[in-house]
Amino acid sequence: MARKLTQRKTAGKHVTKATLPDGLLNAAPVPYQVADTSITALQVYHNPDRRPSGDGPWNNEADKVSWVDNETGLGCIMLRQKNGTISGYVGVSPEHPLFGFEADAVPVGVSNTVHGGVTYGKACEVNRFERRAHGKPRQERYTVCHTTWVRTVQDYRTVQTTEDEFHEDLWWLGFDTDHPGDFVPGGRYGEGRKGDVYRDQSFVYANCIELARKLKSMIEKGSNRDNPIREPLGLPAPSERHGE
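Above: the chain's sequence. Below: its structure in token form.
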């Protein structure tokens, strides 16, 4: 005689959905409006502890946005700092001439491309902290690191830099916006000095793009050296000598 099928009791059981990392607003690439254009943002974070108090141009700004620039193919990040300002960063691979350059070693012609000059030159923070992180681990919403993946495990003490799928061997060059004449929401002068200007995301985005183009041009110039195109030297034509 066949057994009668019985239903298993499922009372008290529930399926838990995976939650996004703290502050992350998107689970997939999303359009993000900035500077009268739309970029495909790979990471959009909200950091309430860094958001300036009161109303201001920061009301509709995210606190971290990462994307890959379409024209240059370089990863870019806009990240709000503890003082409420926004800094910008562009990542380059080991093949780039400036890979491994600290900020003060970046050539003036490149540094002057951005507001206040290049003030940041460091490896991807995921790679720098890895297992050496102590105490509270770095959270991705605060880090200058990869742009192409969203890490769902935020504890960097468990990261294997050579085998981890999120590993990207990038060197980040960046700039900040807390120079004289810049409005610093969390600065020592409170409301700021007369004439100070808040450098919003549109401003930072434009500087990121200019830096990305400058860095990309260095790669293209390097490739041209491998296959140089010889141009005419512009010497005068030889004069004819008539026999005596």
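The CA atoms of residues 3 and 153 lie 46 Å apart.
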